[in-house]
Amino acid sequence: MLTQEQAPTRKTKVAVTIGPSCRSPEMLERMVDEGMDIARFKFSHGTPSAHTEVIGALRKVSGRVFLHPLLIRLVSGPGP
User: Fold this and answer.
1) Pairing verdict, β 38-42 and 15-17
2) How far apart, in whole angstroms, are the C-alpha atoms of residue 14 and residue 27?
3) Residues 6+ apart with CB under 8 A from 38
4) Residue in 74, 2, 79, 64 with CA at minimum distance from that of residue 38
5) Vertex 26, ends 73 and 1: CA angle to 5°?
6) What are the residues whose beta carbons fall under 8 Å from the beta carbon of 68, sequence distance 6 or more?
7) Residue 47: is its pLDDT beyond 90?
8) pTM of this prediction?
9) What are phi and psi for residue 10, nearest 5 degrees?
């Protein structure tokens, strides 16, 4: 696990779209450890309760390692 002092300083950001294959707490922790800066959620897919559960797990993992990714929520726009 990285500590705040060990976190690399860089100009680019690593953005990850959270989907079914990476929703587990273990995978979220691994992604945070590997340098995920932005967690992107597509709210047009999945349920609000599923997103709430994953965001809670991500916050718990982030708090343990002192790194807090930015959360981006994508919602569908108006239809055609």
Assistant:
1) parallel
2) 15
3) 13, 14, 15, 16, 69, 70, 71, 72
4) 74
5) 100
6) 62
7) no
8) 0.73
9) -145, 160
DSSP state of 45: S
Q: What is the CA radius of gyration of the chain?
A: 13
**pLDDT of amino acid 4:** 56
The helix or strand, by DSSP H or E, that contains position 61, with its residue range, turns out to be helix 48-65
Report the distance separating Cα 79 and Cα 30, nearest Å.
36
CA distance 45 to 42: 6
Q: Using one digit for the tens of pLDDT, what is the confidence trace for 14-42?
A: 999 998 889 999 999 999 888 899 999 98
First to last CA, the chain: 46
Residue 44 has which token pair?
Answer: 């047009």
Confidence band (pLDDT; 50, 70, 90) for 76? confident
